[in-house]
Design a protein that fits this description.
Layout: E1 10-11, E2 18-21, E3 32-34, E4 37-45, E5 54-69, E6 79-85, E7 91-96, E8 107-108, E9 122-127, E10 145-150, E11 155-165, E12 168-169, E13 173-180, E14 184-190, E15 199-202, E16 205-207, E17 209-215, E18 224-230, E19 237-243, E20 246-252, E21 256-267, E22 274-276, H1 281-287, E23 291-294, E24 308-310, E25 319-321, E26 329-330, E27 340-342, E28 361-362, E29 365-369, E30 388-390, H2 393-402, E31 409-411, H3 419-422, H4 433-450, E32 455-461, H5 465-468, H6 474-478, H7 485-500, E33 505-509, H8 530-541, E34 546-552, H9 560-576, E35 580-583, H10 592-601, E36 610-616, E37 624-630, E38 636-642, E39 648-653, E40 658-666, E41 674-680, E42 685-688, E43 692-698
Parallel strand pairs: 21-39, 22-23, 22-35, 23-26, 31-32, 32-33, 33-34, 34-35
Antiparallel strand pairs: 1-12, 2-11, 3-5, 4-5, 5-10, 5-11, 6-9, 6-11, 7-8, 7-10, 13-14, 14-18, 15-16, 15-19, 17-18, 19-20, 21-36, 24-25, 27-30, 28-29, 36-37, 37-38, 38-43, 39-42, 40-41, 40-43
Length: 699
């Protein structure tokens, strides 16, 4: 039987549909070949729901059903449709080309349906102009492979009626209608929806609507929003929006007051809008990225003589090829922080032939192990020269000198204090205070001698625990006057800088955890207070040093809450005067995190470079964040992030009247780059929907 399907759009068969597999044939259709791997199939199985003939698929780890078109289908079709049954199998769909080795974004089945089951087939339609997971459109390419790839634990399922659709008819539907700003409605819809019947009632009184602008984001053109101006401003009470047979009900809360004071400002560092591994210049422009970091565990062993590196404990201690590409912020591995770099692109530290008794092995290279015995203890590592070649600061200096684009900042390796875990094959002994300090001073001296204007960031610590102690443990604290690590490190670097006449510039924190060492002597163990705490320590032990956070991330990169957290964090960075930050890592430019960066700086529209004082009354920062800025001391930009489940109604004092550029994402309107132009009256109220981030900039 065929289940009442969850469809991304409704597919309508046309004469030019291309059948890949149909019941009753026992094989792929003519013109299609089986290019699958690591899987077992029955192309004439009737063991699925209702006895419908289907392909029975049982994939091993990352195995795939891969169907090859003898004639490339390019971008000649509107979408893909198939029927699938299984216990919500871990399957992702992607398209690729054997002609140029290009692959599309991988689309998890779970982003299309979460109700795939064993009792019925679920029909899935993938719209190539509206890919699931907000992935936009399928790029132009000579596509000739449709792949259904299982996850790490494989996948078991039945699949049938696979075909490329010549046409997808999108039914007209109003998706959302919600209040925004002082007197606006934002309405999203699909297809040829009739907006002429839209009506609104505020506190029982009918108000007239004037349609203003309809907008579709360039990277998600299938998503459309229309803005309407209300004849009466939004006010506390009930709002009922009716669109045909659909009704949207809202309760606008009483106003909450806030005041902006453009005369009270402090500088915002442009370097807080950084990202790890931005892929290209277009990405940097689209999101307004200001710092590009190349770093992480896999860069520690980077060897410029061949662009070799090693994955370390992240992936079976395997060598491979990697290149920093000439980005302005180059971090980690530049110094060969652990005295070794990869000697080639193929070696690995723990071969099965030498160490047969390991916990796991690479599914793509069954001889490469993880270096862990079944009881969780480490294998005694082999000689480093099996996989690595020696590296020193002279070689690092030569690398810096040879770089065509010089870095603005270097860091002294990445999370070097846990090298005995992340790079156990290279540095098996726990690292303590003295060794870490010596390596930082050695690298900083080399960097400053080679590039006098380069800035140095250290110690790139991996977690909150290691801010206060070392991998050796509390005995290391005791050996250093019972001092916590960061205060001790800062004071020692201050002494070294005075002696050398050089300043490393940044203290760099890579990550925050939650554990607090028992001997911790810092104030308030119940609150992180990362930025003000580190600034206080800097002022006390190493004045003039700036603060960098080289790896930070949200609660969930794929969920709207992650995007709102990121908006809030970027605002906090500006208010508290953080000097530099880079997000870990490369957020999806169409996802919630990418939209957070876009909100502040996307496509050449920038939040100001001076933070403006915002005073709020009875507003909880747990549910609302408001950040204001200016660049010229006259015009303001404001970011509002509503983290609550209900709208917020703000009475903003001192907001200048005029025309404002508005950006927003979230709420019922969804994760898309919505924008328009609005008019704001002096000291007017401003409504922000639930789970929504808004940017307004005076024009």
């Amino acid at each position: 039987m065929i289940f009442g399907a969850l469809l991304l759009s409704f597919g309508v068969l046309a004469a030019a549909d291309d059948i890949i597999y149909a019941p009753g044939t026992g094989a792929l259709a003519s013109g299609w070949e089986n290019w699958s791997w690591s899987s077992t199939f029955d192309f004439a199985s009737t063991a699925g729901p209702g006895g419908v003939e289907s392909i029975s698929v049982n994939t091993e780890e990352f195995g795939a059903l891969s169907t090859f078109a003898e004639t490339a289908f390019d971008n000649n079709y509107a979408g893909l449709r198939f029927d699938i049954s299984g216990a919500q199998p871990d399957v992702s769909i992607y398209f690729s080309s054997s002609l140029n080795s290009v692959s599309s974004t991988s689309l998890p089945l779970a982003s299309m349906s979460t109700v795939v089951n064993t009792s019925a087939f679920t029909t899935i339609t993938v719209d190539f102009n509206n890919l699931p997971g907000n992935e936009g459109i399928l790029p132009n390419n000579t596509w000739n492979l449709v792949n259904f790839q299982g996850g790490q634990n494989g996948a078991v399922y039945f699949i049938t009626n696979i075909l490329l659709l010549d046409e997808i008819i999108v039914p007209p539907l109003i998706l959302s209608a919600e209040p925004i700003a002082g007197n606006m409605l934002a309405v999203t819809f699909q297809g040829d929806a009739d907006l002429s019947q839209l009506s609104a009632i505020i506190n029982g009184a009918q108000v007239s609507l004037t349609q203003s602008v309809t907008y579709s984001p360039p990277d998600t053109p299938s998503q459309t929003i229309t803005y309407f101006t209300l004849s009466t401003p939004l006010s506390a009470g009930s709002l009922v929006i009716t669109a045909g047979s659909t009704t949207f009900n809202y309760t606008i809360p009483a106003t909450q007051s806030l005041t902006i004071d453009i005369t009270e400002t402090k500088d915002i560092s442009p370097s807080i809008y950084g990202v790890n591994f931005p892929p290209d210049a277009d990405y940097i422009t689209l999101l307004g990225v200001t710092m590009s970091r190349w770093g992480g565990n896999a860069v520690t062993a980077y060897n410029p003589n061949g662009a070799f590196t090693n994955a370390g404990n992240d992936y079976y201690f395997e060598n491979r090829v990697s290149s920093p590409g000439g980005r302005p912020l180059l971090a980690a591995g530049l110094s060969g922080g652990l005295d070794w770099v990869s000697k080639d692109a193929t070696s690995y530290s723990y071969p099965r032939t030498t160490y047969p008794d390991q916990q796991s092995f690479d599914p793509f290279n069954s001889d490469a192990g993880d270096g862990l015995l079944p009881n969780g203890s480490w294998v005694t590592p082999p000689p480093q020269s099996n996989v690595y070649t020696p590296w020193n600061t002279s070689q690092a200096a030569a690398m810096l000198s040879a770089m065509p684009i010089k870095p603005d900042v270097i860091t002294v390796d990445n999370e070097i204090e846990i090298a005995s875990s992340t790079h156990q094959d290279m540095h098996p002994d726990p690292m303590g205070y003295d060794e870490e300090l010596a390596r930082v001073i050695m690298t900083a001296t080399m960097a400053k001698d080679t590039l006098p204007n380069v800035e140095v960031a250290a110690p790139s610590t991996c977690a909150w625990w290691y801010y206060w102690t070392s991998d050796i443990g509390y005995s290391d604290n005791a050996a250093h006057g019972n001092q916590d690590f960061i205060p001790w490190f800062l004071s020692q670097m201050n002494n070294a800088s005075v002696q050398a006449g050089k300043h490393p510039t940044y203290i760099d924190e890579s990550w925050i955890g939650t554990s607090v060492p028992a001997q911790w002597t810092e104030p308030n163990p119940n609150a992180v207070m990362l930025i003000p705490r580190m600034q206080q320590l800097i002022d006390q032990f190493y004045p003039g040093t700036r603060l960098s956070v080289s790896e930070w991330s949200s609660t969930d990169d794929t969920d709207i809450t992650g995007g709102l957290v990121t908006v809030d964090s970027l605002g906090i960075f500006g208010v508290y005067g953080l000097d530099q930050a880079t997000y870990w890592s490369e957020p999806d430019q169409k996802g919630p995190i990418g939209l957070a960066f876009w909100l502040y700086r996307g496509n050449g529209t920038f939040f100001g470079d001076k933070s403006v004082q915002v005073t709020t009354a009875n507003v909880s920062p747990d549910v609302l964040g408001v950040y204001a800025s200016t660049s010229d001391g006259e015009k303001v930009s404001i970011v509002i992030v509503n983290k609550d489940v209900v709208p917020v109604n703000l009475a903003i004092s001192n907001i200048p009247a005029g025309t404002y550029f508005l950006r927003h994402f979230g709420g019922e309107a969804g994760v898309a780059k919505w924008q328009t132009t609005i008019n704001i009256a002096a000291n007017s109220n401003f409504v922000v929907p639930s789970y929504t981030a808004v940017f307004i900039q005076q024009q």
